[in-house]
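= Protein in question =
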Amino acid sequence: MNLNGKVAIVTGASRGIGRQAAIQLAQSGVKVAVNYSSNKAKADEVVQFIEQFGGQAVAIRADVSKVNEVEAMFSETIEKFGRIDILVNNAAIMECKAIADVTEEMFDRHFAINVKGTYFACQQAMEHMGNGGTIINFSTSVSGAMLPTYSVYAATKGAVEQLTRQLAKEFSSKDIVINCIAPGQVSTELFLNGKSQELIDSFSRMNAFGRLGEPEDIANAIELLVSDKARWITGQTIRINGGFN
């Protein structure tokens, strides 16, 4: 995809899907703000990797659960690159527990990062993004299944699907498209953390190809959805999951 000259913010871009999305967007000519919350070294590695092939990127720290830090992230991106055309709301947490073990703190933190962070980044995009921009939010294919211990995480992603749909017409006033992608099980630190090999293998068998997805599988879809070839798609949730069922 030729996206030369565009500017993107990718939240949670120091690792996993966010990292791969930032790299592939940069390879397509996008200047990228690589957002991170705590791991500056990993974010700097992403920036250095992008710069090695001639791309442009900057690492920007922001905890997306804090609105003032989201605002500062947008201001710093504009100060560095002059504009914002693409927002990829990738930052999220996932902790899986049975309902009896869910604490108020865990519940609130999931909604603060996964929902509040996405919503107020969208609010900043409405203010600062020029006409013709693109927003990609993140849900999960788990929301179409019934899996024990996923209740809090899936609830946050269901909220993200709804805010994406409800915001589509508001963003159309600036010719901005907004969509939500719902990956299946992807081989990332976020997904693999705390899971036994037996459980990972069982998830692998739940899609048509018998393997976990890779970050590239999701980043490829992001590239398509932020390109001009996808301008007639908005307010949608798109399952990118290898036929997960």
Remarks:
- The CA atoms of residues 134 and 177 lie 5 Å apart.
- The domain at 7-240 is CATH 3.40.50.720 (Rossmann fold).
- The two ends are 30 Å apart (CA to CA).
- The beta strands are 7-10, 31-36, 57-61, 86-89, 134-138, 177-183, 237-240.
